[in-house]
Design goal:
about 75% helix; mainly alpha; about 400 residues; extended
Length: about 400
Amino acid sequence: SSHEHKLNFKKSKEVCLSYIQDAMLQKQWKRAAEFLTSYVESLEKDFSRENVGPSEMIWRIGTEILCHHSYSSMKEFNSFIEQMKTLGVKRYLKVCLEHAFHLLCNGLIDEAYQNLSLAESWRFGEQTAIQDKEMKLIRAYRALLDYYSWCKQKNILLEHGQDGFEALPVEQEMHSCFRKAAVNLKEIIKIPGVWDLFVKCYVDLLEFYGDHNEARQVLNEYAYNSKFPANPNAHVYLYQFLKRHGESKKSLVSALKILHDIVPSHELMIDFNTMLQKSKKRRKRRLGLEVIFAALDYAGWKQNAKAWSCLARQVKQIVTSEKHLDWIKQEWNSRKDWWPAFHFSRYLAKRNWQENESLSYEKALVAGILLGKDCKYFKYVSHQGCKAQVKRFRILKKFVNKHSPVYLRISG
């Protein structure tokens, strides 16, 4: 019966999809392709009984298989994608984007540009308005390729100089690429979202032509507009721009403060700490200590000699002056239960000494102050340093012994 046929078809379709999934998970691309072929053929045979069109699943699965299949060629991939374009009007622009990405990954830049240009001219009734966002993405990615062409022309011009008749067509082509890229890049970054690559390219174009005010406005909007999602890179780009143009330390600190709040483990925290330590304001120096402690809470910083040097230098200054020991105490209170095992074990002391003498020196100074002269890390490193007759380790040992009462005040 018709009802029984539908039930059987539905069951066999689900079983076939599970076989495809299993084959893909095991990276058996040939087997997955065979099952997908059977799946598509079964759908075609059933069109007379049930209106089942090619779903997004076929597009996604087919693309994945063709990207990994050992016998797949660019010709076959292009053929499959073109079929997906004609069979899925609602997904047309998405398929075009994926096609362009695949072409770019295979170094076919001109073909990708042509593909995006054709997609940009696509019109299909109401679908054109519905897919407005996808169309903006199409234009934005084409703008990236215009930017790429602009970079090539710029490099040619810079390499061969701007003098002579031959430079004129290059410069004209370069300005043409700039205009096409700038219009669409400016358009896409107005939409709230994460547009890192597009923003960087647009700012590069503006800076090259000396429009620094526009570039600053774009970066400020990207970093501070509340409609945009929190994005650490936005503050990184703003900081780098401000630094390139010699802006005030106040502006630089402001940009990095927000970055610290979002990603306390960011690599720029060393720059942030250095700037804060040079400040004459007490609250900024206090923040600097907080920043470097917070960065060293993360495993990725455990072997960072610069970070430990920053912390050692500030701890040494505080201990020597005997001012603001409460700063160290406040930071240490929340860490004294886990930092000893995380940073100052005997195993790490041995490893650090073997791999990086400077790192072990900075860490030993911090360990000696925070945990006292009986700390395993400090004892091992200072012993090895003195044994190797390295002068600074003898000085280090004397310094920690001299200021041993500080440990009692911090730990108390």
